[in-house]
Amino acid sequence: MPLQKLSALIDAICSFVICNDSSLRSQPIIFNPDFFVEKLRHEKPEVFTELVVSNITRLIDLPGAELAQLMGEEDPKLPGANSTASGFFRSLMSLKRKEKGVVFGSPLTEEGIAQVSQLIEYLHKNLRAEGLFRVPGNSIRQQILKDALNSGTDIDLDSGEFHSNDVATLLKMFLGELPEPLLTHKHFHAHLKIADLMLFDEKGNKTSTPDKERQIEALQLLFLILPAPNRSLLKLLLDLLYQTAKKQDKNKMSAHNLALMFAPHILWPRNVTANDLQENITKLNNGVTFMIKHSQKLFKAPAYIRECARLHYLGSRAHTSKDDLDLLTSGSKELQPLKSQKRSRLDTCHQEETQQRTEEALKELFRHVNNMPDSAKKKKLIRQFNKHPTALTPGSEVPTSPAPRRTRSRSFSGLIKRKVLGTPVILERKSRDTTPEPERVSKENVHLLQKCGSPAHMSQAKLKTLEGRKEESCRRMRTRLLSKDSSSL
Hints:
Blueprint: H1 3-15, H2 35-43, H3 45-59, H4 64-71, H5 88-98, H6 110-124, H7 139-151, H8 164-176, H9 188-195, E1 198-200, E2 206-210, H10 212-224, H11 228-246, H12 248-251, H13 255-266, H14 274-277, H15 280-293, H16 303-314, H17 322-370, H18 376-387, H19 412-421, H20 423-434, H21 443-452, H22 460-488
Antiparallel strand pairs: 1-2
Helix pairs in contact: 2-3, 2-16, 3-10, 6-8, 6-11, 7-8, 8-13, 9-10, 9-15, 13-15
């Protein structure tokens, strides 16, 4: 199919929509597969959270306290929170967050995301800079840019006044000065459990190979219950890091290197050091690496969540988990035989109607052929009808005259030889004629056989009388023929 036709077909399919409101038909329609998911999230957040969390607990094991923290019912218990050590690094970080501005150091809002998105858009155009996000920029230029963002003034980053390293360092600074990490404190323990999802061998033993499918599904669910501003900025950030890692041959920044730069800002709890996290640092860094590599799949709701949200608004009842949908599909399988019976009845009715119409059309065609003047074409058409009497010939309404059988000419001498040679030839003829092929058996022969019965059931007396009659008739024929021959001679 040519490309132009294919694109036209795709445009036609995308623009097709069933709408009863005439005022909306002229408006462009954007199809969002997560429409009902977003609708349920905004209109009934408690129902939506319960739906998502019930499926998260199906994938990862969360004890009661951690589950309560995920649901927001308890304050999160983080590593290092009970520690009495108050080092210089921790006090410095807390002092930095006290300096709140409009954007930097404030809780995340849509206005703050709009300001920071200017930095992300600029970095998308400059991904080839070597050591991006690792090499620090100029502190003076960074302060000028930070003040401009806090004041809400328009910034022309393409003017050449700022370097890509300045912008990248400022983006990390913004994330690090948020009151809580981008992935929130409530989700910290869930991310540790997701990092432990491994495959099982044939014997059911846990292996060291990560179960990527379950990790992606768990992250999809976890991202669904993030606050809306956090989810929006996380999507922009991970997409930027994914595109940066694709250019690692130029910028020397792989997904793992980027995770080392950003894990402390988006996942580590605030006011903790590396000593507080201990063995969890590797899990957290690997978790961020996995997010960067699979970022294009993580912001789509799983299919069963879409179906549950759709059924909540359009179906008879709301289903709360993937298992409920499995039960629904099993119930629909039980109804399939009834549906197939209805379908078969409809198909038979349709076939009968089609057959009736076909027969009527054939009858009309046959009448037309029969009314044609005698010609070679008419004979040919009639022969075609006669070849398929069951499918083409429309019955006995227009009977066709059978072709006359030619009688075989017999010479007088041949007749004398047959009569003189006697009964063996005649009996052989009759035996051949009385055992016809099964294809040529007519109704009259069947009736005669049914009346007379088979020769095996005939009595011996009847056979003797029949033979006597035949011999007598043969003698009479011989005498007549001999008298005729003598008179002619």
